[in-house]
Amino acid sequence: MAQTQFNQNLENADRILCFYINETSQIQIVRLRNIPNLKYERVIFPGERLFFEAVPNAVLEIYSCKDGQKNLSIVQLCDRIQVNEESTILNPPNQASLDYICL
Hints:
CATH architecture: Sandwich
CATH topology: Immunoglobulin-like
Strand content: 35-45%
Mean pLDDT: 75
Strand order of the largest sheet: 4-3-6-7
Low-confidence stretches: 1-7, 87-103
Order of helices and strands: EEEEEEEH
Helix content: under 10%
Number of domains: 1
Radius of gyration: 20 Å
Structural class: mainly beta
């Protein structure tokens, strides 16, 4: 299941949509740093997907939890995990390729 978090405290023009997936078998805690007036922390279960908004220079800290201990695993700039929306236009196949498929 994917969670989406929209941070209301960020200026609209500065927001970027980011994506993270916990590909480990461990519970993780994600924290956003480098954003004034905002504290963001979430628990992410194995296989869980997370969409969230942040500013490009925000830092995502990912902590792995094992045996009751929390260890910093990854530090990632949010502009590196930004969701990019690309416009894709499907070109209709030409008649020759349709004839080939139908043979």
